[in-house]
Specification:
alpha+beta, globular
């Protein structure tokens, strides 16, 4: 699954990389280091859709897909911020969006966790470059008339570079498939199948990152800093009940590259 991701690219780079023709943001957006799912307002993140007029448009959406006419309270939603690639064509919850309401989710990395009691985050990236997750979008209208754009990130099986950390990974779209993925009249199945095959050899890099970002309330560059996990430090001295534990050491990560990622 992909429950945390990062987009620290500048808005101008996002517009250029994804050939955005129109911007429809209802508030200012800035590079974000610790994006987490939320079906409520106030935490919306960037998504790229194609309008009915065929215009590639940048919007803000909630990272938790809500069907257009969801009849129940939002707290009754399933965990719908991720959509398994294997279920898109057949599962009723995803089928409509997969057929006609696909989107791109700009990102520069994502985060997965290992460990049982103490979660160790790992930052995964493609050379710190800007790329797009395959996404599904929905424009939700509540019973009292509230309208909100929402999205889910498509996931696929982990490739060998990721498997030791997690058995799933977000689906990264090759740049040459953006147009077909966004086109509501195109058949998405060949695009999906091709992207899933290519993800198996995607050059994903990873490193253990600062646990400060385990909290969804934290937002800042420390989320990307490399650390030496406590498990890799020297074990506590025998015979002491409370051994001194060294704090994780941090190393600043490189700034995101502006090259386009396929």
């Amino acid at each position: 699954m992909c429950g945390r991701y990062t987009d620290v690219a500048e808005l101008s780079d996002i517009r250029l990389t994804f050939e955005v023709e129109q911007v429809e943001l209802f508030r200012d957006w800035k590079p974000t280091y610790n994006i987490s799912p939320s079906y409520g307002p106030g935490f919306e993140q960037l998504m790229i859709v194609r309008t009915r007029d065929g215009i590639r448009t940048l919007r803000l959406g909630r990272f938790w897909m809500i069907p257009p006419a969801w009849p129940k309270p939002l707290k009754a939603l399933p965990t719908s911020f991720n959509a398994r690639a294997e279920e898109l064509a057949n599962k009723p919850f995803w089928r409509r969006a997969f057929r006609a309401s696909r989107c791109l989710i700009p990102a520069t990395g994502w985060r997965e966790f290992t460990g049982e009691k103490t979660k160790q985050p790992h930052h995964l990236h493609l050379g710190h470059s800007l790329f797009a997750f395959a996404g599904l979008s929905s424009r939700y209208t509540s019973a009292d008339g509230e309208v909100a754009d929402t999205f889910a990130i498509v996931t696929t099986e982990a490739n060998p570079a990721v498997r030791a950390i997690h058995d799933r990974m977000p689906l990264v779209l090759p740049a040459e498939t953006y147009a077909a993925w966004l086109d509501p009249d195109a058949d998405p199945v060949p695009v999906l199948d091709d992207a899933c095959r290519r993800s198996l050899v995607l050059g994903v890099e990873s490193y253990p990152s600062d646990p400060i970002a385990n909290s969804s309330r934290y937002e800042g560059p420390r989320a990307l800093e490399r650390v030496v996990p406590r498990a890799e430090t020297a074990p506590p001295r025998q015979g002491t009940l409370f051994a001194d534990e060294p704090a994780p050491t941090r190393e600043r990560s490189p700034k995101p590259s502006r090259r386009r990622s396929g």
